[in-house]
Amino acid sequence: MSHFPWLRFAGAAITFTGLGYMLMKATVPTEEELYNRMAPDIRKKVDAARALRLAREAEMKQQVAAQSILTQSSQFGLILTPKSSWQLTVILAHLVSLFSITVLLYHLAQNCIFVLVVDFSASNMVIRQS
After folding, report:
1. Which of 33, 55, 95, 124 could form a disulfide with 29 if both were Cys (CB 3.0 to 4.6 A apart)?
2. What are 48-57's pLDDT values in tens digits?
3. 3-state per-residue secondary structure call for the chain
4. Banded pLDDT at 83 (limits 50, 70, 90)
5. Whole-number Cα distances in Å, 107 to 22, 89, 94, 101, 111
6. What is the pLDDT at residue 91?
7. In the prediction, which pLDDT does 33 show?
8. Spatial distance between the Cα atoms of 80 and 90, rounded to a whole number of angstroms
C-alpha cells in the first residue's frame, strides 16, 4: 500500500474549493443585480420570457388539478363535465385505461378456472380470487 498524503490532499482540496466559492461569490452578480444592469431592450425580452414561463407553469398547475379531481371523482363515482379539450383528453385517457384493465381481466378470467373480482373503490386496485 502506498503512503499517499491523504490528509494534505483533503486539506488542499477543501482549501481550493473554498477559495473558488469565495471568488465566485465576490465576482458573480445576483439575479437582481444582473437584471438592474441590463439594457431596457434586453429587460423587455427577459420579462416576456418570464411571463411565458409563468403562463406555462399556470397551465401545468391547472392540468395537475384536473387530473387530481379526475382521480378523486373516479374513486367516488362522480360524473365530470369537461371544461376544455385537454380535460376531455385526460378523462378519455383515464376511461381507456380502466376499459383496458377490464378487458385484460375478462381475458384472464376466460383462461383461468377461478373468477377475478376487482375492487375499484379503494385507491389501490385489489384483485381477489373468488
Report:
1. 33
2. 999 999 999 9
3. CCCCCHHHHHHHHHHHHHHHHHHHHHHCCCHHHHHHHCCHHHHHHHHHHHHHHHHHHHHHHHHHHHHHHHHHHHHHCCCCCCCCHHHHHHHHHHHHHHHHHHHHHHHHHHHCCCCEEEECCCCCCEEEEC
4. low
5. 66, 27, 20, 10, 6
6. 63
7. 92
8. 11
Question: What pLDDT score was predicted for residue 130?
Answer: 43
Among 12-16, 27-31, 35-39, 115-119, the range scoring the smallest mean pLDDT is 115-119
Q: How many residues does the chain have?
A: 130
Cell for 98?
A: 380502466
> How many Å from the N-terminal Cα to the C-terminal Cα in the chain?
66
What whole-number distance in Å separates Cα of residue 41 and Cα of residue 94?
A: 46
Give me the pLDDT at residue 74, please: 53
Please give the grid coordinates belonging to residue 126.
Answer: 385489489
Cell of 87: 380535460
How far is Cα 122 from Cα 75, in angstroms, rounded to an integer? 7
